[in-house]
């Protein structure tokens, strides 16, 4: 285990092209002690850490997002964790998500309508940010006027001003967190008074071990949805469109063969890994790859490194839209594997299909310097230019 400062901080902070760093880490120091966490970059170690939640927990000590109780289900360890997944999984099946696809298709086209005749857009601001947030509001049955407020709170807990990395101060995230709790408290009351066909009403009706969820449990689930389901899709859209703008051959493949979209999305998720790493806390003194880790230390399995490990992916640096098999870990692994993967895939599929149908050619505005945000790989702004369709 080495202490080569800077290395991982940059990788975890989300550089524009982190893949060479993943490779260097995996090959030189696969268990690496950075000032913030012990970073794991070998697929086998990452799989082990994600699976063994009794040794590597994602409880409240792993990340502080201003929450006052554990987020459900992420910060609940097995076996208790399973009782929540049993009620949540059925709400996010591919079948349930397919029912929402027509509305998401409309929404995506409404967004494109707003800029298509301009010949340019800020893809991040005008598409990648509002799309998942609007889908989320619809899914939970919340008023669309709350969009801007939601975006502010989400950033307040994920990217609090002046803070980065895992060692955020609770005071930095707590004010936005409290507003999120208050908002959902009111939304739950409103849904109890007037039940409807949405995820929040389903949570109110759900039974866990024969009893309804408490208010607090519903709040702790909604809070996590807000953190887990918005930024991640924004990050994926940003990363994908930067890649496709810079690789016209790959883009043409999507335009000419839309059938390959599902496997192209898996490959872009693998290569870009928009959530580059997750965080755990060691529950005991433990050794990984011959390196001692002390109880209470933070450990970060680097999903981006797992996704480019030649132990699983032949020719990992090749971006092949037909790669098969493609068992990437962009959605994590083990019991906490992403609950919203089918929702995310549907949003990404509709977005890529409709955008390329209407705007097949685009480039990043010449002279643009892309700035990637910390921890999760989105860009602060992504100006695209394209021919105005006739
Ligand atoms: C492309 C977009 C997405 C990516 C890359 C992604 C990635 C991830 C990853 C890596 C984890 C594991 C976290 C960990 O082990 O610490 C996770 C968990 C989770 N994700 Fe996603 N996610 C995405 C979209 C979504 C969406 C749209 C939702 C909406 C509900 C969602 C909800 C969740 C939840 C609730 C968990 C916690 C699951 C558990 O603890 O059992 N995600 N996601």
From TrEMBL:
<dbReference type="GO" id="GO:0016705">
    <property type="term" value="F:oxidoreductase activity, acting on paired donors, with incorporation or reduction of molecular oxygen"/>
</dbReference>
<keyword id="KW-0503">Monooxygenase</keyword>
<comment type="similarity">
    <text>Belongs to the cytochrome P450 family.</text>
</comment>
<dbReference type="GO" id="GO:0004497">
    <property type="term" value="F:monooxygenase activity"/>
</dbReference>
<dbReference type="InterPro" id="IPR036396">
    <property type="entry name" value="Cyt_P450_sf"/>
</dbReference>
<dbReference type="GO" id="GO:0005506">
    <property type="term" value="F:iron ion binding"/>
</dbReference>
<dbReference type="InterPro" id="IPR002397">
    <property type="entry name" value="Cyt_P450_B"/>
</dbReference>
<dbReference type="InterPro" id="IPR017972">
    <property type="entry name" value="Cyt_P450_CS"/>
</dbReference>
<dbReference type="Pfam" id="PF00067">
    <property type="entry name" value="p450"/>
</dbReference>
<keyword id="KW-0560">Oxidoreductase</keyword>
<dbReference type="InterPro" id="IPR001128">
    <property type="entry name" value="Cyt_P450"/>
</dbReference>
<keyword id="KW-0408">Iron</keyword>
<keyword id="KW-0479">Metal-binding</keyword>
<dbReference type="GO" id="GO:0020037">
    <property type="term" value="F:heme binding"/>
</dbReference>
<protein>
    <submittedName>
        <fullName>Cytochrome P450</fullName>
    </submittedName>
</protein>
<keyword id="KW-0349">Heme</keyword>
């Amino acid at each position: 285990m080495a202490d080569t400062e800077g290395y991982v901080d940059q990788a975890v902070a989300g550089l524009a092209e982190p893949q060479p760093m993943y490779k260097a880490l995996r090959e030189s120091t696969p268990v690496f002690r950075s000032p913030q966490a012990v970073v794991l970059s070998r697929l086998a170690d990452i799989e082990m850490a994600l699976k063994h939640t009794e040794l590597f927990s994602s409880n409240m000590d792993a990340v502080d997002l201003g929450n006052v109780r554990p987020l459900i289900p992420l910060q609940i360890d097995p076996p208790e964790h399973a009782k929540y997944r049993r009620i949540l999984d059925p709400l996010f099946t591919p079948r349930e998500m397919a029912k929402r696809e027509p509305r998401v298709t409309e929404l995506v086209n409404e967004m494109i309508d707003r800029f298509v005749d301009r010949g340019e857009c800020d893809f991040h601001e005008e598409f990648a940010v509002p799309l998942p947030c609007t889908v989320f509001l619809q899914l939970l049955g919340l008023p669309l006027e709350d969009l801007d407020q939601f975006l502010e709170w989400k950033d307040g807990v994920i990217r609090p001003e002046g803070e980065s990395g895992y060692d955020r101060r609770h005071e930095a995230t707590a004010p936005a967190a409290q507003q999120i709790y208050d908002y959902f408290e009111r939304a739950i009351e409103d849904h109890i008074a007037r039940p409807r066909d949405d995820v929040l009403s389903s949570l109110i009706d759900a039974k866990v071990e024969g009893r309804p969820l408490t208010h607090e449990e519903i709040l702790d689930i909604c809070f996590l949805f807000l953190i887990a389901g918005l930024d991640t899709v924004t990050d994926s859209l940003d990363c994908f469109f930067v890649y496709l703008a810079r690789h016209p051959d790959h883009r043409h493949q999507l335009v000419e063969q839309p059938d390959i979209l599902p496997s192209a999305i898996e490959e872009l998720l693998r290569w870009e890994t928009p959530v580059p790493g997750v965080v755990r806390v060691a529950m005991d003194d433990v050794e990984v790859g011959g390196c001692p880790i002390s109880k209470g230390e933070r450990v970060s399995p680097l999903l981006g490194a797992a996704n480019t490990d030649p132990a699983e992916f032949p020719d990992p640096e090749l971006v092949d839209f037909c790669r098969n098999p493609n068992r990437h870990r962009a959605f994590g692994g083990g019991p906490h594997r992403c609950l919203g993967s089918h929702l995310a895939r549907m949003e990404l599929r509709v977005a890529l299909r409709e955008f390329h149908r209407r705007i097949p050619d685009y480039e990043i505005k010449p002279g643009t310097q892309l700035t990637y945000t910390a921890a999760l790989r989105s860009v602060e702004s992504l100006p695209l230019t394209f021919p105005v369709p006739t």
